[in-house]
Amino acid sequence: MTSVVIADHGSGSTATGAPPPRVRRVGSTFDGFLGLGLVAGAAALAPVVALAVIAAGGDGGLWRHLFTSVVPRATWETSILVLGVAVFVMVVGTGTAWLVAVHDFPGRRLLEVLLLLPLAFPIYVLAYSWLDLLHPVGAFQTELRALLGIARPADLRLPDLRTLPGAVLIFGLGLYPYVYVAVRTVFLAQTAALVEAARMLGASRKRIFFRVALPLARPAIAAGTALAIMETLNDVGAAEFLSVNTLTAAVYSTWVNRGDLSGAAQIALAMLVFVSTLFLFERLGRGARGYAVVGRAVRPMNPIRVEGLAGFGLFALGALPAVLGFVVPALHLLRQAQERLAFAGFADEILVETLNTVSVAVAATLVALVVGLPMVSGRRLNPGSRLHTALLRISTIGYAVPGTVLAIGLLAVYGGVDAVIRAARGALGGAPSGLFLSASFAGLVIALTLRFFRLSASKIETGLERISPSLDQSARTLGRSPFAVMWEIHLPLMTPTLAGAALLLFVDCMKELPATLLLRPMGFETLSTHLYGEAARGTYENGALAACLIVAFGLLPIILMTRIGRRATIPAAEGAPS
C-alpha cells in the first residue's frame, strides 16, 4: 500500500546528527508495486496448484502402481544420491576452504581460482565428458590398453560410472564449490583473536578446527550444502546419462516417454514433499543461528607458511578436485571439439542454437530484473507491510522447485491460459488461434524467470541494504512517489549490483536443461538440448562443441568472482551473536 507521508520536524533537532523526521501515515492507496507482487505471487503458485489438480484427477489404480513400484525405488536412489553428494561436498568443500584460508604455500593464489572452476560445468556436461572419456573405446582406456599392451577392450574394463557411487562422484566434483565459496569466506573473516585465544589455552590445530572454526562455519556449510542438494534434485540430464533413477528422472520419463501427465504430476508432488523435508533438515543443520564478531575491527588470521615439498603436496592435494572436476573434462571436450571441427567444420545449427540459447537467457534475465527491482523496492518502501513481504517470498519459491516439476505444472497452466484465449477470441468472432504459451518462446521465458527469480530478488535485496534508508525518507518527505524513489535513487545506485545479478541470471538460464526440454517450442534447440540429444543417441563427439560453448559461458561468473577480491571481512556487530 502506498501511504501519503507528512514529515514532523520535532523541536530540538539539529542540522548534524539529527534523527530522520518522523513520518505520519495519513492515508493509503493501492500501489503498482503491490499489484506486480500479486501477479508474480500468483504466477509462482499457479504451477504448484496445477500439479495438485492434475494429480488429483489421476486414476486411483495409477496412484497405487506409482507409489508401490516407481516412487519407492526412485525415492531410495534419490535419497542415497543426495546423502552421498551432501557428505562429499561438505568434506571436500570445507577441507579445501580450510586449506587455502589458513595455509600459505606455493601456488595458493592459483589454487583459490582453480577450486572455483567446476562451477562453470553444468552437471550434465560434466557427466557427458567423463562418460565419453572413460568409455571402453574412449581416449583414456584406449591409451591405457596401448600402454599395457592389451589389444581387446574386453580384456581391460574399468569400473562403470553408470552407478550410484559414480553419480555421487560426478555430482560431488561439480558441486563442492558451493560449500567451498561459502565456508572460505567465513574462514577468511575469522578474527585472529579467536584462534590466538584457543592457542593460548593450549589447543592444537586439529582442536582449533573442530572446536572453533567448524562451529563458526556451520551455517555456511549448511547453506552451501543445501544449494548443492537443490542442484542435484534439479538435474535430469546427468541422472539419465549415469542411469540413476531419481525422482526428477522419473517425472521426466513418465511424462515424455509414457505420455502420462497425471502420473508425472503425482510423482512431482511426492518430490515436493521430499524437497520440503530436505529444507527442514537444512534449517535444523543451520541451527537457525548466525554468527557475528563483536568489536570495532576484524583482523583475519595470518596463514601458516608451508615451504618445500610439503607445500607442493598441499597444492596437489587441494588441486585434485579441481583437476577432476574441471581441468581433465575441459581438456577432453576441447580435444573432441577440435577433432570434430577438423572433420566436419563448424555446423550452422550450432550458431542457430547459440543464438537461441542467448536470446532465451537474455529475455528471462531482463524479465527477472524488471520484475525483481520494483518488488524488492516496494517491500523496502513499505517496511511494515506483511503483504509485500509475503508476496516477495512466495514469488521466489520456483528456485526450490526442480525444473522438471515446475515445467509439469506450467504445462497445465499454459494449456488453461491458451484455452481461455481461444474461447475469448471465438466469442468475439475472431479466427481460430493456435498456442500462445504452450510450446512457445514466451512460455519458456516465463518458466526460466520463475525458476531463477529468487536469485534476482536476493541480489537486489543485498544491493538495497547498502543504500541508507534516510535517502528514501528524504525523497518521500520531498513528495517523491515510491516509483520515483526507485527510479531516481535505487536504480542509479544499484547499477553494479544489477549488472552482477544479470550475469549470474544469464548463465543459470543458459544452462537450465529440464524446463527447456519440456517447454521449448517445436524445433527450437538450445546448446543444452542439443547436447542432451547427442548424449541420448550415444554420439558424444558431435556434442563436444556445444558442451565447450556451455562451459565457456559458465566461466563468466567465475571471472567476476575472482575480480571481487580474495579477502573477506565481517563487519563489527553491536551485539552478541544471535
How much helix, percentage-wise, in residues?
over 70%
CATH C-level name of the largest domain: Mainly Alpha
End-to-end Cα distance, whole Å, is 32 Å
**Strand percentage, roughly?**
under 5%
Secondary-structure-derived class: mainly alpha
Number of domains: 2
Rg: 26 Å
Mean pLDDT: 80
For this structure, the CATH topology of the largest domain is MetI-like fold
Number of DSSP helical runs: 22
Overall CATH architecture of the largest domain: Orthogonal Bundle
| Structure summary, number of beta strands | 4
**H/E element sequence:** EEHHEHHHHHHHHHEHHHHHHHHHHH
Low-confidence stretches: 1-18, 20-29, 292-297, 565-578
* Main beta sheet strand tally, sense and closure: 2 strands, antiparallel
Q: How is this structure best described in words?
A:
The protein is mainly alpha-helical and 578 residues long. It folds into 2 domains: 1-8 and 30-55 and 360-523, Orthogonal Bundle (MetI-like fold); 58-317, MetI-like (MetI-like fold, Orthogonal Bundle), CATH 1.10.3720.10. Helices cover 71% and strands 3% of the residues. The chain contains 22 helices and 4 strands. It has a two-stranded antiparallel ribbon. α6 packs across α8 (205-234) and α13 (348-381) packs across α18 (482-493). It is globular and about 80 Å long.
